[in-house]
Specification:
Chain A: Keywords: Membrane, Transmembrane, Transmembrane helix. The complex is a heterodimer of chains A (547) and B (428). Helices cover 53% and strands 14% of the residues of chain A. Chain A is an alpha/beta fold and 547 residues long. Chain A is globular and about 80 Å long. By secondary structure, chain B is mainly alpha-helical. Chain B has 21 helices and no strands. Chain B is globular, with a radius of gyration of 22 Å. In chain B, 38% of the residues are buried. The chains are: A alpha/beta (547), B mainly alpha (428).
């Protein structure tokens, strides 16, 4: 009672139990003949995450380098296992150490192998990668790495929670929707088949009846899961952060479900050893196969040549609408001296559309900066925690933006003309087209989902459609609610459907994760949505309520 | 007129000053679309550092600016930001461009059929053109990023603007001096010699006829002034630095294109994959391409030298060896002067959309090529090509509109065929 009643001592005890055993790891790795180094890092979170419940995250990464016996130290491979508290991933480090011991006695290694155990999952991985590549893009504080191994050619990240597995799940989606080369996935799958281990993607078992309706719908569901995961722009495994440095990486998750045929740790070890031998034999980085693909199953993929035209046709709708508006604007004989769509608005007549543009973008900037900045203020006045304050402020600003058109019209005098809304719509439609095009090039799934919801909106909104019905449709198709539906859909696809209440809590946590990902790793979803997509949607909202 | 101009200047300077203070300034000054090996600020600083150490700034193939620029910045190092903003402001004082239009109006008024009156611009319309030109230049995002990156093409633009101003005023000596300065900086403004000459001849009512001695007399005078100033500048540079190093480093660099860093021009990709055997041939072809259009255009536009200046500047900006967006903003600033051609433009929507989309796609494809590794140089060059094609389409569209307006001015606006039905114009 004495020990646990004092909150400080309680926290220290829990910290001791859940912190990474750095010294033990260092000793064990050294005993296996690796060159061991540690890296300390600390990061101040913009707001305390639900799991962490504190602002400052401190940790240590431990890594051991197995030097190739006769090769120059120019290339390296990485095998990483996250060290999480509790029973999550408690076997991964064991396999890693076992492999280290086995690898040490082999003579065929041509590249250095780095065995990395990172603390706090992605935060530790980010610190290690930044230290390794001497960049500092996210403002983290880390101690410099004492030992290096040359340029990293490929990396695999292990997540194992039990020592027997029934299948291995391959996770490919990385930060900002970036994917490793398809060759890496094919390599892993082919080798799993050879060894006889079941390999899955998105946690769904593969089926052979892909030409029946149910088989087809299963494949579509698997692909939709990949699309949703890619669109979220977050790294779905520790490998996700390697991709930014041009390093092909994938995460391997061991799944232990209720199937009769189980694979033991030795087979998993053989599998990983085989993978590393294959990667060791590579003469150049994997770059020959596709970087842009969607996988309905591990044996089939949809390449960019198939899915981009679908997006192109959606963007074409916007361009045709823009052309139509242009022709309408140019044809009447008594037109104003507008220069149409130049890079800079020229004559003072076009100044009236500048106001909705500026106000929408200012709202976007407010949505981007205010939630994190005003969490102190919100916590003082309302009985919420900081995370809830940030998320609820974001939702509040988002909804407050809906009230805008009714106010901006009172500020501007004499702008309610037919020409005015057409010019605004022309600008908004072209802006949306360019925005969606750029987004689809970087993260196709995000661009496609946004296009699916925003293009019908953009094409049909005029001030003359029935207002209440269109307002409801517009709100349903807005980016915020698209995210809500996506959350429910994602849970359905993963065969763990949630109730409305749980779904709402999940939605709030997704928003907070999005903001946190942007601050910690540089994920582009939150700034894109707040600074570019939301103002664009607000422009269409303005057009709907044009007087 | 003064108040809106002053307001515009304050807004422009505020935007640039605000951007200078953010971290975006560093990001922008490294973009290849904004700076090129010829005019990057980083290289100017390198050159200044070498000069301070008493080593020739041209050693090491880093610095490719002329000696006058390096001495200018030697004294203005601490005021670099103000210098660039001042260059932008000076450009906007090009309000005397409207002068030539009034003159033209007076010349043409008696030759025009009655139904073309709507084609002629009234003085009230023309009153706002200088303000529009200033706005187009100062608030153009291309100019803003070019200024924030401290790219010296802002200075080049200011010199060309002064040249145009002095030509419009009719002062041949000043025009020759500024043209010499512009040519000394980068070789391509040499082609502006012809339109300047045509304008000055027209202003003095000397007909352009090779048999007349007055034509030859004036031409030789102008060329003598121009070549003389150029020679003076080159000799001055020699005396400033004490060696002829700058000739291969500046002019040799511009003409032989050794640095193949990607930019928004057309040279880099071609020469990256060129075999050495053919390099000289293609180099000559590409460089002649810039100068080649002078002769046919001057023959066609010999009565409209100001439009010829615009066309030449545009062609230089598209076809030069290391273009940047600052060069683009120079000719785009002149678009409001030809506002009256708007009704004859056929492709303006397509061109604007393509230019807008390409400007957005440049950083995206650069990121995909260099950082993500998913794309390669072909993607980036595709956008470069599209950008150049859009600019060429813009220039040729304006040319068509100009010729069509001239045709209407001489032949009437509503053309009829011999049997009285409405005729259509076809450009052959």
């Amino acid at each position: 009672m004495g020990l646990l009643s004092d909150p400080n001592r309680r926290r220290a005890l829990i910290g001791m139990l859940t912190r990474m055993p750095v010294d033990w790891l260092v000793r064990t790795m050294q005993a296996r003949g690796l060159e061991v180094y540690t890296q300390r890092f600390s990061r101040k979170l913009p707001f305390p995450d639900e799991d962490k419940e504190r602002y400052m995250v401190k940790g240590t990464n431990v890594y051991g380098i197995l030097r190739a016996p006769r090769a120059p130290r120019t290339e390296a491979l990485v095998l990483s296992a996250p060290c999480s508290p509790g029973n999550e991933n408690n076997q991964a480090v064991g396999i890693l150490l076992g492999l280290a011991q086995y690898f040490r006695s082999q003579i065929y290694w041509a590249k250095d192998i780095i065995f990395l155990v990172n603390e706090h999952d992605l935060i530790g991985m980010q610190a290690w990668l930044e230290g390794y590549h001497h960049t500092n893009t996210t403002g983290m504080d880390w101690s410099p790495l004492q030992g290096r191994g040359g340029s990293i050619q490929a990396a695999l990240s292990l997540e194992l929670s039990s020592d027997v597995v029934t299948s291995l799940d391959l996770v490919l989606e990385g930060l900002n929707g970036q994917l490793p080369n398809l060759d890496l996935a094919n390599l892993f799958y082919a080798f799993c088949q050879k060894i006889g281990v079941l390999c899955t993607t998105q946690g769904k078992l593969p089926r052979n009846d892909w030409d029946t309706t149910s088989g087809y719908s299963h494949a579509v569901q698997t692909m939709m899961l990949m699309v949703l995961k890619q669109a979220s722009s977050r790294p779905w495994g520790d490998h996700g952060l390697f991709l930014r440095y041009h390093i092909e990486a994938a995460s391997i998750k061991g799944v232990n479900s209720f199937r009769p045929y189980k694979t033991d740790a030795t087979t998993v070890g053989r599998l990983l050893e085989g993978m590393y031998r294959k990667l060791n034999n590579l003469l150049e980085r994997l770059h020959q196969s596709y970087f842009f693909y969607l996988m309905p199953s591990l044996t089939r993929f949809v390449s960019i040549g198939y899915y981009m035209p679908a997006f192109g046709l959606l963007a074409l709708i916007l361009l045709l609408r823009a052309l139509d508006l242009w022709v309408q604007l140019s044809s009447p004989p008594t037109r104003t001296t507008e220069d149409g769509v130049e890079v800079v608005p020229a004559s003072p007549g076009v100044l009236s559309i500048l106001t909705p543009l500026v106000i929408s973008h200012l709202t976007g900037v407010a949505l981007y900066t205010l939630p994190v900045l005003s969490q102190e203020l919100a916590v003082e006045h309302f009985p919420v925690s900081e995370t809830e304050a940030v998320v609820l402020t974001a939702i509040a600003i988002y909804t407050a933006g809906l009230a805008l058109p009714h106010n901006t019209h009172r500020l501007l005098a004499g702008e309610g003309t037919e020409q005015g809304w057409k010019v605004l719509k022309l600008v908004a439609v072209l802006y949306l087209a360019v925005l969606l095009g750029c987004t689809a090039l970087i993260n196709f799934s995000l661009g496609f989902i946004l296009a699916l919801t925003l293009v019908p909106l953009a094409a049909f909104i005029t001030p003359h459609v029935p207002k209440t019905l269109s307002a409801v449709v517009m709100v349903i198709l807005s980016p915020g609610l698209t995210l809500l539906f996506a959350v429910f859909f994602f849970q359905e696809l993963q065969e763990t459907p949630v109730t409305l209440q749980e779904g709402w809590m999940l939605y709030l946590s997704v928003i907070s994760q999005g903001i946190l990902d942007h601050a910690l790793y540089g994920s582009l979803l939150y700034p894109l949505a707040a600074l570019l997509v939301y103002p664009c949607w607000l422009l269409f909202w303005n057009i709907l309520f044009w007087k | 007129m003064a108040a809106p101009l002053a307001l515009l200047l304050i807004v422009a300077v505020t935007i640039r000053a605000a951007l200078f203070r953010t971290s975006l300034a560093n990001l922008i000054s490294e973009r290849v679309e904004v700076v090129s090996p010829l005019n990057a600020w980083k290289r100017v600083v390198e050159g200044l550092a070498l000069l301070d150490l008493d080593i020739s700034p041209y050693s090491g193939d880093v610095f490719h600016e002329t000696p006058m620029v390096i001495y200018l910045f030697h004294f203005l190092m601490d005021y670099a930001e103000i210098t660039f903003m001042g260059a932008g402001v000076k450009f906007s004082s090009l309000h005397l461009v409207s002068q030539f239009r009034k003159q033209k109006f007076a010349l043409e008024a008696d030759r025009i059929p009655m139904d073309c009156l709507e084609l002629i611009r009234s003085p009230t319309e023309m009153y706002y053109i200088p303000l529009k030109v200033a706005m187009f230049y100062l608030l153009n995002p291309f100019t803003i990023v070019s200024c924030v990156a401290k790219c010296t093409c802002g200075l080049n633009n200011a010199v060309i603007a002064l040249f145009i101003l002095s030509t419009m005023r009719g002062s041949a000596l000043l025009s020759a001096i500024f043209l010499a300065l512009a040519t000394y900086q980068s070789i391509y403004p040499l082609t502006l010699c012809v339109p300047a000459l045509l304008y000055l001849l027209q202003r003095l009512y000397i007909p352009v006829n090779v048999r007349r001695s007055s034509f030859w007399f004036y031409t030789l005078q102008y060329l003598f002034m121009f070549l003389g100033s150029l020679l003076v500048l080159i000799c001055l540079s020699f005396f400033l630095l004490g060696s002829w190093d700058f000739l291969p480093a500046v002019y040799g660099f511009i003409l032989s294109v050794p640095d193949l860093t990607p930019n928004i021009g057309l040279f880099w990709y071609f020469f990256a994959e060129m075999f050495d055997h053919f390099r000289l041939f293609f180099l000559c072809v590409f460089q002649i391409n810039v100068f080649f259009y002078t002769l046919p255009l001057s023959i066609k536009l010999k009565e409209h030298p100001v439009f010829l200046i615009f066309m030449q500047i545009a062609l230089i900006a598209i076809f030069k060896s290391y273009p940047t967006v600052g060069d683009l903003s120079l000719y785009m600033a002149f678009l409001p002067v030809w506002n009256h051609l708007y009704r004859f433009l056929r492709n303006i929507f397509l061109v604007s959309c393509v230019l807008l989309a390409c400007s957005a796609l440049f950083p995206v494809l650069w990121h995909l090529w260099i950082y993500a590794g998913s794309a390669n140089s072909n993607f980036y060059y595709a956008i470069t090509l599209l950008f150049s094609v859009a600019q060429i389409l813009l220039v040729s569209d304006y040319f068509y509109a100009f010729l069509r307006r001239e045709h209407h001015l001489t032949n009437g606006l509503y053309l009829k065929k011999k049997d009285g039905s409405e005729a259509t114009l076809v450009l052959k």
